[in-house]
Amino acid sequence: MYKKILLSSAIAAALGTSGVAHAAVDLDQPNGQNPLVFAEEIAVGSGVDLNVTAAGTNGGGDSATAAAVEVDFGFTIGQGTSKYVRLGFDQPLAAALVPADFGDDSAAAATYSISQGGQAGDSFVIVEVAAPTGGADVLQDDRFAFQPQDGDEIEATDQNTRSISYDLYETAVDAVNETNLLVSKSGQWITWGPGYDLTCTSANPSQIDVVDPTQFVDGTNTTNVSNLNLSALNVFTEGGTAVTIPANYFGAGAEVVVEGSTEAFETAAGFTLNTVAADAAPANGSATWTATADPAAELNGVFAVTADGTNEMVQSNYTLSVTDTAGAATYDVGTVSTACGNLQFSGSTDRLDFALTPNGAFQQLARITNPSGTAGDVTVTVINDDGDQVSFDLGDINGVASNSLDARASTKLINIDDIYAAAQAADPAFAIAATGPDSKNKLRVVVRGEFGGDAVEGYSATDRDSDGSGTSVTTSFTGERLVERREDGIYIQGLTVSRDNNAFFQTK
Questions:
Q1: Are residues 209 and 267 in the same domain?
Q2: Which residues belong to the signal peptide in this entry (predicted)?
Q3: Residue 5: inside a domain, yes or no?
Q4: CA-to-CA distance for 322 and 333, rounded, in angstroms?
Q5: Quick check: 445 pLDDT over 90?
Q6: What pLDDT was estimated at residue 277?
Q7: Domain match, 232 and 96 both
Q8: Could you read off the pLDDT of 336-353 as tens digits, one per residue?
């Protein structure tokens, strides 16, 4: 017997889970609305017992005592009479059921006895529900409960979704023959799923200053890249308790790694998770932390970067991985990873992917255009085929008068030889490879304008000096990652001159 008591969903918080708490499976709800979800990381092997009653109770059902499945009787059982409940299972029982495995919340003090089935190997059980003479009736909206007590009656040999059926009959003969059905209900009651969730949500970080890549556009060296979340879900262990972190997943000593561009952040506090710095100055493209106790508590919060103020930052996508420590938690899930934000340049960028060899047999010219309604400075980056790169201002190129491009203006035709000379002036060590059949002697040219927005990066211009204050264009993240150049974004064109200098060929 049990009384109806509504348990708060706060149970979920107390158990270290997130979201809406599971309850005992309610067959009066739409099919599949609230099955008991067991951790898919459970090693089923040749068979594992599932304590479905503990799972239903820990999930916060509507009863004061344990219950795995609940359903309205659907038909009144008058005092001094009986009716018969037949439960059907997708898979055979692993151990015998007893009368104490059934109950209700009626005022009738009904008694239970097993008429047929319910033994190990059976896939059904027929239970007589008797309302004693001289008491109250068992009403049609009173709740019947299936509550196997020992925890070994339900066994999993696979991770298939399982259903349970409830049928009510007038007589035992009808229940055996499955005739003259009074009430029939069914639904999913056991499913499987991951017990944890690892996510990073973009924090809309400050953009890298396109003119001074050693800082962000707000003039600072620190920004929040993304918000982290590592949490347990509404999932149960085989014992029917809600999974938690770190007891079941990612115990003490779990390793956390963030991979992406690190060159400008190789300081003691270059990368932080919840203000906790990486274990050491990051190197080789990653930063590493070791969780001391509870990875969920230590990870949830903000992933931030702090530039050293000297090395130029570059656009980068970051990936966060957590590696479980074998033996430190119930379930060893190895390494799990998630995309974890990015850094992008302010303004707009474009590139010339194929620049001919400087001082080569063919002459190449470049033209840079600002199609926006706002003037702004332009920075040029030249990259050789070995991946070495150097940046400099547009005005450092021979024959270009200014670092800035006026609204809707274009530069003159700039010889690739002069772009290469400006790169070598900025860094005398920068060079293309030596000539020869195996030489790498081409360049890529990237231009960045302090105006407009990048289509491929999802940034859009939002203010074209609408108040007349003379301030430059600002940008915001729209999430729209287009494939074509924005109308207000910088672009560079490449032109190749024929050998006889009588024709131009546009290469981009």
A1: yes
A2: 1-23
A3: no
A4: 10
A5: yes
A6: 93
A7: no
A8: 999 999 888 888 888 898
Last residue of a domain, one of 289, 316, 343: 343
Which domain range does residue 324 map to?
196-343
Distance CA 372, CA 394 (A): 17
Q: Identify whether the C-beta of residue 244 lies closer than 8 Å to the C-beta of residue 15.
A: yes
User: Cα dist. 449→255, 344, 458, 492 in Å?
Assistant: 40, 13, 16, 11
Average pLDDT over residues 60-70: 66
pLDDT of residue 64: 46
Helix, strand, coil share (%) of the chain residues, nearest 5: 10, 40, 55
Is the dihedral angle over the CA atoms 476, 481, 485, 491 positive or is it negative? positive
pTM recorded for the entire structure: 0.73
Give the DSSP letter string of 208-233.
BPSS-TTSBTTS-SEEEEEEEEEEE-
Q: Which pLDDT tens digit goes with each residue over 215-270?
A: 998 889 999 999 999 999 989 999 999 999 999 999 888 999 999 999 899 998 99
The span from the CA of 287 to the CA of 269, in Å, is: 10
Which tokens is 490 given? 């910088």
121-152 tens-digit pLDDT: 999 999 999 999 988 999 999 999 999 999 99
Distance in angstroms (rounded) separating the CA atoms of residues 349 and 450:
9
Are 27 and 174 members of one domain? yes
pLDDT, mean over the chain: 84
Q: What is the DSSP letter of 176?
A: H
- Name the domain boundary from 148, 177, 193: 193
Are residues 354 and 319 part of one domain?
Answer: no
User: Can you give the pLDDT at residue 459?
Assistant: 42
Same domain, 77 and 154: yes
What pLDDT does residue 33 have?
A: 62
* Residue 228 resides in a domain: yes
Q: What is the DSSP string of 305-328?
A: EE--SSSPP--EEEEEEEE--TTT
Domain count, the chain: 3
Cα–Cα distance, 44 to 49 (Å, whole number): 9
Report how far apart, in Å, the C-alpha atoms of 391 and of each of 379, 382, 394, 396, 435 are.
7, 6, 10, 10, 24
Torsion sign, CA atoms 339, 343, 347, 352? negative
